[in-house]
């Protein structure tokens, strides 16, 4: 009996295997899409366009229409992905809500996110972290490399006396520097502690990868305290009406020269008069009202603390307290009134909390309205409400046209 198995059975061809039902639909959809996209005459090849020498124009190719959609419908759907039409419902997620670039004095600041949020390039989370550093729990005498700004830029919040904490669970402190008598040893300890602002985060913490840039402090200040007449003018008028209506003025000082403050007061007065209701007469602004507005002081009523970060023209009760809406420092101006020929001086800049950006030097020079009104108008900045001063260098094409950037 032979054991020869005989000729082997033919192997099945993989191309002849049955395909899933949805494969034909997918191939059909792709065929329809590409046929509709490349059906126009602009996609005709050179060989097709050169057929025939009789000079007769070729017949236009008919528009390919699928059983599911036409070429016009396809192109319209593609256009909606790039430039959506407001008249049709979008098929992609809408753009996320964007915060305004500035918040004028007549509008409250947006709600702050949690201080534990890791968002290195956002000003509001930075402000939330900075507000955890209070004068009674974090020394203002620490070196700048260990100060509240440096710690908050590195992602730390204040936790206890001179203590720092992060959402990753790391906790440590920077106190005790005053007990080190040797100056060289103290400098070395400060250097090593400053290096720990990045290294002391736990493995996997986002703050070990990227810290907030130092320029974010200036961006936060411009966001919360824009140096434009649309914000400064109503604030100065409310300060004059609510906080400076008494017969006795506080003794005050600021680094801005008096002639520049007078120019600012005149500019804000002119801005308010141009936009006042017909027949309304605004009281004249003086240098103190303009200076208080410039350095970010707001009228503060303890009975309406929730509305202390903005002003509503014509409303609010008289008060002798002013507050900063960034660092939330409150000052009673009665403490600076002259008594018996002597008085404390209200330093409009230095009374802010140590980490407040309004306490820094020379930021006020960004305000264009500190210059005489005629000089600014000659340069074309008549509508100061739309003018935001920044530190960006002028673009080359702007310099070529004589426009400041």
From TrEMBL:
Keywords: Nucleus
UniProt cross-references to InterPro entries, sorted A to Z: NuBaID_C, NuBaID_N
UniProt biased composition (Basic and acidic residues): 21-32
Domain C3HC-type: residue ranges: 122-223
Compositional bias of kind Pro residues: 7-17
Low complexity bias (residue ranges): 96-106
Location(s) in or outside the cell: Nucleus
Biased composition (Acidic residues): 45-56
Keyword Membrane included in the entry's annotation: no
Residue span, NuBaID C-terminal domain: 289-364
Pfam families noted in UniProt: NuBaID_C (PF08600), zf-C3HC (PF07967)
Residue span of region Disordered: 1-64, 89-111
Main location as per UniProt: nucleus
Protein's name in the database: C3HC-type domain-containing protein
Organism of provenance: Vanrija albida
Lineage: Eukaryota, Fungi, Dikarya, Basidiomycota, Agaricomycotina
